TrEMBL record, chain A:
Pfam families: WD40. It comes from Lachancea fermentati. PROSITE patterns: WD_REPEATS_2, WD_REPEATS_REGION. Keywords: Nucleus, Repeat, Ribosome biogenesis, rRNA processing, Transcription, WD repeat. GO terms for biological process: positive regulation of rRNA processing; positive regulation of transcription by RNA polymerase I; rRNA processing. It is found in: Nucleus, Nucleolus. The keyword Ribosomal protein does not apply. WD repeats lie at residues 275-310. Coiled coil: none annotated. This is LAFE_0G09846g1_1. The lineage of its organism: Eukaryota, Fungi, Dikarya, Ascomycota, Saccharomycotina. It comes from the Eukaryota. One of its GO terms (molecular function) is RNA binding. GO terms for cellular component: small-subunit processome.
From TrEMBL, chain B:
Residues 1-374 form the Utp8 beta-propeller domain. Transmembrane segments: none annotated. It comes from the Eukaryota. InterPro entries: Utp8_b-prop, Utp8_C. This is LAFE_0F04522g1_1. Residues 383-636 form the Utp8 C-terminal domain. It comes from Lachancea fermentati (Zygosaccharomyces fermentati). Pfam families: Utp8_b_propeller, Utp8_C.
């Protein structure tokens, strides 16, 4: 009975996270990537995310409104897949130009859906929505231009092919009429005031021609061949136009090449001048609205201002990422789109809103930054002059996407897990992000901080060209002591490639503590803690009873185990105990578990789990036959969890087992083989298993790639979260999610938090489910291990009584009484006999006792 | 490790029927609640006989005896030592005991010098003795030496405070009679408390907590908490208080209540005791308790529900605990505590003795409890269940294990029929373990099947055994002496070495030093290095009684063209060095030593040659490059040294 009750109490919801999207980033032919917008009063900034639209107040730098797609039926229908993106956000109601309420925006998606949303107050239940019906199958809305009452729509076809075709429509009375079309478009740009459009197209003979036209009306035409900069014999980068910009008066056209050169062409006389500063490909260009400055950005992580009248140059350096888009917003702000390109497994965008007068940052917007085990689908890397892991070059541009898709479909290993840890003290989520760690507040849904934990080139400047092949140090693991005051990280440093020493990775273990500025400061650093070439495969924090949890175990891939602890005298961490490795057996399937009372360590290595005594730091003596010091499983162990000091949950590549340590019997086992075998890298399954240390519940994520239509697999994952009780006898719930879940963790409360490959954060939550009787019992029994609750209560009782003695006869005793009436009421029913016992010996009883008796019966 | 030792005798009890009757003896023997692990003196009120003091060390001995009339029973007894008031004065002891004689109830005190040494005995001496009659039986007395008071709890629920001259100082009514448990304890902050449990009507009980204060306080004994709990009969229950918890054993079920609010925290079933047993149940350490049932003593961990230690006293019929020295159990003196009990022999006219058992309570951690749990779990063999709902799955298999074992047993020694049953019933497709056999994961079943094979087949084994040797869950219990068994079956022998998990190192080493076959030697060597770490291998070789390393050394040193062996040479050397380290060079025969040294010389020569060749090569290349530089220095320099590459922006 109780189980059914609990079953309903858990629920799964996607509540926060998400990442800002650059809707046009997948369309190579568009120079402008970002779609953002200021609200009517210019005080708020509207940013589309992959799961919602967020509105930030520029004044307070806080998110003031979110429009979540999932919360509205119409919106969730429109944004049904992650292929659908916001192509344009237009202020006001597009269908009703007379609307003067200034609280609406019109959102147009790339597949031609239009929806009118109110951004003030509660979102209306059924927003007004219609569709551009004239669009062909492959045709996507690229941009909507507005000039007073006129609305023109630019669409593109075949956006993934080397050259696509554009169509410009006039929109009136909910109908599109084509007015112009461009074919073989390589790249395009439009002026900020949306008056002029420039298109570069390449004909059959690979001759490139530029067309500049006015968008509204028919008053400006110009076409001329692309002027080639420099000598004709240069590499392909010198011809490859990566980005263009057109100024408002249609006087100047700036062309950025993959080689790093910017060519500014005066459209009056077609004279051109060359601006050289960028070392690698120019990624973004924009004129200010008066045309006096040209803004450019690229791999250097430096925003460059070119004063066109003087050729003087100014810089804004040390930005967080590669500048993939620059925009001028209403003259007052510069909007930058940065890509944190060092993460090659995902597109991590950060939107930066700068004040144009003093260049101070007004807003900095990004989602959780996850580093997945392998690259997820639809990752678009910026163009560079060279081809590297972090970038695409002009040569392999069009092959890449198809190759990636094919690879994803064919591969059996679908390991997109990522690492996430939750700090027990602040409850913030920690995402290791290459050489930094991102701290994310789940409840506020904002980044708290981003701190570099390892020194790499990327920390202060961007990498260009061949530097892109240098790998930054990578944070592989982040852990916290049980009180959340110490952070332990392990990182991997990569030597340069193509050297004899290229495989000599350096492993570093670092111990951090929080300083008063709420920044982590390094206290102890250990280089190659397990010897040269030996990686750290697992870190496990000590339970509270061991040195107040200021200790941790590290394991290598060779069966070795080390215990590090904080020394209160020297105020540093040091190696305290060692268990030697086996030199001839290597495996990355390593897992650790530690009993709550600190006495035993379970060390899984390959398919064996050995039981170690912590005090001797060696295997248990095998003297008596009843004590096993080794458990053999059917395949390599992926994850170990010790629940309530009683059940050892062992996940192998094929099965999930619960072993009762008191009887040494496998009590329950489940078949993981169809979901796990070969899918995850060794050890990564532990990211998908978590357990609630207070109630002993275990949550397991199963990711699946269902068969698409016609038996063909589509790249659309689904996942299930299974919540078990402490010994796996009952499933408390199975919950579905529509995307691949990368990591799940217990939030040190009653819930599990997960992150999916869309960087969305979800929660498997329960409100108050610990009413199940047996669970309560177990909890109470184990609590006694840690705290001396009894003494405290006794003191309170004794003190409370004393106080009451003083306050005899006064009103206000109830509080003191209530404090200790919190008794066990589990198996009690009130019936007509319940109160009879109260009246026995009534004449001699204290008032308190009588009151107590009443409370006992009724509570 | 936690253990219960064999009891030793303190004294033989007088031949009084009630003292030898196991149903009543515990209430007729009152041991003062003064035991700590270091206590040497034990005070016992023996009804109808005497109130006696014994010392335990160096040998159990009676040191003081205070005879009481044979009609009197001792209902409770306590002793406390008074601090010496002036220096040089002998410390004094206060004895307090309550007597019952034909519905006449009395409270008695005795103040005598406490003598530390066992040699002086003071029989016959008389000391200050007080007596006062009370209206009801005193179920518990407690001496507070510092305050010089005695707190007595009477049967009807009165809590009375006396001074040492037995003058009534204070009395408070706890309102309920039928008291079953009275326990005095001191909190960490130094306050004294007394809690009591009394039974009401209809299976209801009342828990009360009192604070014992200084006499000068307004209320010397004051009620702090009172809890009435239903369905908690005390009459047939065994109760004790320990570290903020009350344990109640009733009908083979222990209920644990958290104080001070008396909340039920845990229910533990004890499957190993039956209701007819003579049971006693006492505290011993945090979360641990001693339990006796008939003549068996159990040390239980009530947190992990495990039997830490168990002892059967075969020479007696029953053993019952009277008093224990309770220790926290997390310090180093876990092994020093003890308990006093009364044992009764078999027979119509049995003799009872007071016995002491020493107890090591262990650490109370999971380490002590591992594998010793007593809670029986569902008898159904576990099967591999599907993770999501069944219709989501492609394959699940369930086997009726017990029936298959029965069928296999019936087959007898016909290996083909055995194989057909085995492979068909278990749906095994291949001769070796594959992932689709993961449903065959019941260890008990595998153990039984291997057992059946070893029982029924002697010379020729069925194919099923080969399959089982490849199974990763091959039962551990059969791995010992497995290799010896396969001596005559080279195929199975090799299969076992290569795939069978959990082979013991001793067996492997034994085979390694005896096997003459090179191929098997190599397999054995690799297996040993794969499974065990160096220290363990070394210590195991050292432990072996007779090591003949001759074979093995020959095998490693032997020049051989076998590719596999050459590839694994470094590992073989590793093992060789481990073997030599553990047996010592001087244990080798001369011929072996000579062989070994010549082998090493050979190896060193090869290394030397290599180094020379390398030097030669290096010399020649350096010479050539330097020679070249003389002619065309600028060009070669540019080729050799190229620390930077400069790329120009091409435009």
């Amino acid at each position: 009975m109780t189980q059914a009750l609990v079953h309903q109490k858990y629920k799964l919801a996607v509540v926060s996270g998400g990442k800002p999207v650059l809707p046009r980033v997948s369309n190579r032919s568009s120079s402008s990537k970002t779609v953002t917008c200021l609200t009517h009063d210019k005080a708020n900034y509207i940013v589309p995310f992959n799961n919602q639209i967020k509105i930030y107040s520029i004044e307070t730098r806080q998110c003031v409104k979110t429009i979540k797609f999932a919360n509205n039926e119409t919106l969730s229908k429109i944004f049904h897949s992650n292929e659908v993106m916001v192509s344009h956000i237009s202020l006001g109601d597009l269908s009703d130009p007379e609307d003067e309420k200034y609280d609406k925006i019109t959102v147009i998606t790339n597949i031609g859906d239009i929806v009118v949303l109110n951004y003030k107050g509660k979102l209306i239940e059924e927003p007004k929505t219609w569709k551009f019906n004239e669009l062909e199958v492959d045709e996507e809305v690229l941009k909507v231009f507005r000039n007073k009452d006129q609305v023109n729509v630019l669409t593109s076809k075949n956006k993934f092919s080397p050259s696509c075709s554009y169509e410009l429509y006039q929109y009136s009375e909910k109908k599109l009429t084509s007015i112009k079309s461009y074919s073989n478009v390589v790249i395009s740009c439009w002026s900020l005031n949306e008056q002029f459009l420039c298109v570069l197209s390449k004909d059959q003979e690979k001759k490139k021609t530029l067309y500049v036209d006015s968008i509204f009306g028919d008053n400006f035409h110009r076409s001329f061949p692309l002027p080639l900069s420099g000598n004709a014999s240069g590499s392909s980068n010198t011809h490859f136009v990566n980005v263009m910009a057109l100024d408002n008066s249609c006087m100047n056209l700036a062309i950025g090449f993959a080689s790093g050169v910017i060519n500014v062409i005066n459209l009056e006389d077609l004279s051109s001048r060359i601006l050289k500063w960028h070392i690698d490909s120019v990624l973004s260009l924009c004129f200010t609205s008066d045309g006096s400055y040209l803004l450019s950005g690229g791999w250097e992580k430096v925003l460059s201002f070119w004063q066109l009248s003087t050729n003087m140059q100014q810089f804004l350096p040390r930005l967080n990422g590669v500048i993939v888009d620059v925009d001028v917003v209403e003259d007052k702000y510069y909007s930058l789109s940065l890509q944190l390109a060092e993460n090659q497994t995902n597109c991590d965008y950060q939107l930066l809103l700068l004040n144009s007068s003093d260049l101070t940052s007004r807003l900095c917007i990004n989602g959780p930054l996850c580093v997945f085990r392998t690259m997820v689908k639809d990752v678009i890397q910026p163009m560079s002059a060279v081809n590297s892991k972090l970038s695409t070059s002009s040569n392999n541009l069009h092959k890449l996407r198809k190759k990636q898709q094919r690879k994803l479909l064919k591969r059996k290993r679908q390991d997109f897990t990522c690492n996430m840890e939750i700090n027990p003290l602040s409850k913030h989520l920690y995402f290791p992000h290459i050489s930094a760690v991102q701290v994310y507040d789940f409840y506020k849904n904002e980044q708290v901080s981003y701190q570099y934990l390892a020194s790499g080139i990327n920390n202060s400047m961007g990498k260009v060209r061949l530097e892109l092949n240098l790998r930054d140090p990578m944070i592989s693991e982040v852990k916290f002591t049980k009180d959340g005051k110490w952070m332990i990280t392990s990182e991997i440093e990569y030597p340069p490639e193509d050297l004899l020493s290229s495989n000599d990775l350096v492993y570093v273990l670092k111990f951090w503590t929080m300083n008063s500025n709420s920044e982590w400061t390094l206290k102890t650093k250990v280089i190659n803690p397990h010897g040269v070439h030996a990686p750290i495969t697992e870190i496990l924090m000590a339970p509270r009873v061991i040195n107040n949890s200021y200790g941790c175990l590290t394991a290598d891939n060779n069966g070795g185990l080390k215990y590090w602890s904080f020394n209160n005298v020297t105020k540093s961490w040091s190696l305290t105990r060692v268990s030697l490795p086996n030199v001839n057996h290597f495996s990355n399937s390593v897992a650790l578990a530690w009993s709550l009372d600190g006495s035993l360590i379970f060390h899984a290595f390959d398919e064996k789990v050995s039981v170690l005594d912590f005090n001797t730091f060696s295997k248990l003596d095998n003297d008596s036959p009843s004590i096993l010091n080794e458990i053999t499983l059917d395949s390599a162990v992926q994850s170990l969890i010790l629940v309530n000091d009683r059940n050892l949950i062992i996940a192998t590549q094929t099965t999930l087992n619960s072993v009762n340590l008191l009887s040494y019997k496998v009590e329950n086992s489940f078949d993981l083989y169809p979901f796990v075998n070969g899918v995850y890298k060794n050890g990564d399954l532990s990211r998908l298993i978590s357990y609630d240390e207070s109630s002993g519940r275990v949550a397991l994520v199963v990711n699946q790639l269902p068969q698409g239509e016609k038996g063909k697999p589509a790249l659309q994952y689904s996942s299930s979260v299974v919540v078990f009780d402490s010994d796996l006898t009952t499933k408390l719930g199975i919950f579905q999610h529509d995307e691949y879940i990368s990591c799940i963790r217990w939030n040190y409360d009653t819930d599990f938090i997960f992150v999916d490959i869309q960087c969305r954060l979800g929660v498997v939550s329960t409100t108050t489910s610990t009413e199940m009787l047996d669970e309560l019992n177990r909890e109470g029994a184990l609590d006694a291990l840690q705290s001396n609750e009894f003494e405290a209560q006794l003191k309170k009782l004794s003190g409370g009584q004393r106080e009451r003695d003083h306050a005899m006869g006064e009103i206000g005793e109830e509080d003191a009484v209530f404090e200790f009436i919190n008794g066990d009421n589990s198996d009690k029913l009130i019936n007509m006999n319940s109160f009879t016992s109260m009246f026995e010996n009534i004449d001699n009883v204290q008032m308190d006792t009588l009151f107590d008796r009443v409370m006992r019966v009724i509570t | 490790m936690p253990s219960v030792s064999q009891p030793f005798r303190l004294t033989v009890l007088p031949k009084i029927a009630s003292l030898n009757n196991f149903a009543t003896q515990t209430s007729y023997l009152q041991v003062a609640d003064t035991l700590t692990p270091l206590t040497n003196k034990i005070n016992i009120g023996i009804s109808g006989s005497a109130v006696s003091q014994y010392i335990v060390n160096p040998t159990p001995k009676l040191v003081y005896n205070l005879p009481i009339p044979s009609t009197n029973t001792v209902s409770s007894c306590d002793v406390a030592e008074l601090a010496a008031k002036t220096e040089g004065e002998d410390p004094q002891e206060v004895w307090c005991y309550a007597l019952v004689a034909n519905k006449v109830f009395s409270l008695n005190t005795l103040i005598k010098p406490s003598v530390a040494t066992a040699s002086t005995s003071n029989f016959g001496e008389t000391f200050e003795n007080n007596k006062v009659d009370i209206k009801y039986k005193a179920v518990n007395v407690k001496v507070y030496p510092k305050r010089e008071t005695i707190v007595a709890v009477l049967e009807n629920g009165l809590i009375q405070t006396f001074d040492f001259q037995l003058k009534l100082l204070h009395s408070i009514d706890a309102t309920y009679g039928e008291i079953f448990l009275v326990q005095h304890f001191t909190s960490e902050s130094g306050l004294d408390f007394v809690c009591m449990l009394s039974e009401l009507k209809d299976k209801k009980s009342c828990f009360k907590l009192f604070e014992v204060n200084e006499l000068t306080a307004a209320i010397p004994v004051k009620e702090l908490n009172s809890v009435i709990i239903e369905d908690c009969p005390l009459k047939d229950a065994k109760l004790f208080y320990q570290y903020g918890k009350i344990y109640r054993l009733c009908d083979a079920e222990i209920k644990v209540y958290n104080l001070p609010h008396f909340q039920l925290a845990q229910t533990i079933n004890l499957p190993f005791i039956s209701s007819n047993d003579v049971i006693s149940f006492k505290a011993i350490s945090t979360n641990r308790a001693l339990l006796t049932a008939q003549n068996k003593i159990y040390l239980l961990d009530l947190l992990h529900n495990a039997t830490l230690s168990e002892r059967e006293l075969s020479h007696v019929k029953t053993f019952q605990l009277l008093r224990t020295a309770v220790i926290p159990g997390n310090t180093s003196d876990n092994d020093k505590t003890f308990a006093i009990g009364v044992s009764t022999k078999h027979g119509a006219n049995p003799v009872s003795t007071l016995d002491i058992i020493n107890v090591d309570v262990g650490t109370g951690t999971l380490r002590d409890s591992m594998g010793k749990g007593f809670s029986p779990r569902g008898g159904k063999p576990h099967t591999l269940k599907s993770l999501l709902s069944p219709d989501n799955e492609t394959e699940t298999e369930e086997f009726d294990y017990s029936r298959i074992v029965e069928e296999l047993e019936k087959v007898g020694s016909d290996s083909t029929r055995f194989d057909s049953v085995f492979f068909n019933k278990l749906n095994v497709k291949k001769d070796y373990y594959t992932d689709s056999d993961r449903f065959l994961n019941n260890e008990d079943f595998l153990e039984k099947v291997v057992g059946v094979i070893f029982d029924n087949f002697v010379s020729e084994y069925p194919r099923a055994l080969t399959y089982l040797l490849t199974h990763p869950l091959f039962p551990l219990s059969h791995t010992k002496n497995l290799l010896k068994r396969f001596k005559e079956h080279p195929r199975l022998f090799k299969q076992a070495i290569v795939t069978c998990p959990n082979l013991p190192l001793d067996d492997l080493l034994h085979e390694l030093f005896t096997v003459m076959n090179d191929e098997l030697s190599l397999d054995l060597s690799l297996r040993i290095l794969q499974d065990f770490n160096r220290d363990f291998i070394k210590s195991s070789i050292k432990k072996m009684s007779k090591v003949d390393t001759h074979n093995f050394i020959n095998f490693v040193v032997d020049e051989n063209a076998d590719e596999e062996r050459n590839r694994n040479k470094p590992r073989l050397f590793q093992l060789l060095s481990l073997v030599l380290d553990s047996v010592g060079l001087f244990a080798l025969e001369d011929s072996t030593l000579i062989k070994l040294s010549s082998f090493i010389d050979d190896q060193v020569r090869v290394v030397q040659q290599n180094i020379e060749l390398l030097n030669l090569l290096e010399d020649s290349t350096v010479a050539r490059s330097s020679a070249g530089s003389q002619f065309n220095s600028s060009q070669t320099e540019e080729q050799v040294i190229k620390p930077y590459s400069v790329q120009y922006l091409d435009c």
